[in-house]
Amino acid sequence: AYEIRNCDWSSDVCSSDLMPVRNRSAVPQAPRQVQQILAAELQRSGRFEVVMAQGDGEDPDTGSVFTSGTFDEEALDRIRQRYNVTGIIFSEITQFHAYNPPRLGLNVLMVDPAESVVVASVDGVWDLREAQTLAKVRAYTHDKLDFPQSLFRDDRALESPDALLRFVGHDIAKTLEASTQKLMPIDPSVLSAGTSPVPTGTNTLPPSS
Length: 209
Description:
- By secondary structure, the protein is an alpha/beta fold.
- The chain has helices spanning 30-45, 62-67, 73-83, 131-143, 151-158, 161-181, 188-192; strands spanning 3-4, 14-18, 22-23, 48-52, 87-97, 103-112, 117-127, 184-185.
- Strands 2, 3, 4, 5, 6 and 7 form a six-stranded mixed sheet that branches.
- Helix 1 (30-45) packs across helix 6.
- The radius of gyration is 18 Å and the shape is globular.
- The two termini are 29 Å apart.
């Protein structure tokens, strides 16, 4: 479990700032779509209270987070104080194909701004050309989106990227929820004993390829 000193991840609800999405795909509208879906699914999980940052000149550059793997600690702290948040979420679209069959590549990092460490991450490609992913998204449309049981209607729905985006948002929200529930506040008695535990997270990442 991660041990974070200056914030309480054991709370039932974690306030989180969702930064503007970096786009490496050829679809200019993709970042807005993905940010809205992520915000909705994180909020729906009940674990996160989401603030959607608009980004300004003083905010951390999402691109540099993923390319250089470093954080501007002062900028993270400004966001923490401005929005009173426990976590800051950075995300990057690595690929997006909106036509049938749709696919989405996405990297997501949740950072503790008080410590400048990554506390949870998701990195993957969800591709409806893959049978396993197709089956999961089809089941999700039944369980969560109230689509009719007709396979014909299911397959028509899956030709659009909407169901895939909702599934990916739901998948990421569940992963971040599970990861942050493992975070434990530090035991004050450990500090009083004169020892200082080292967080499992790190404030550097390998550069993107």
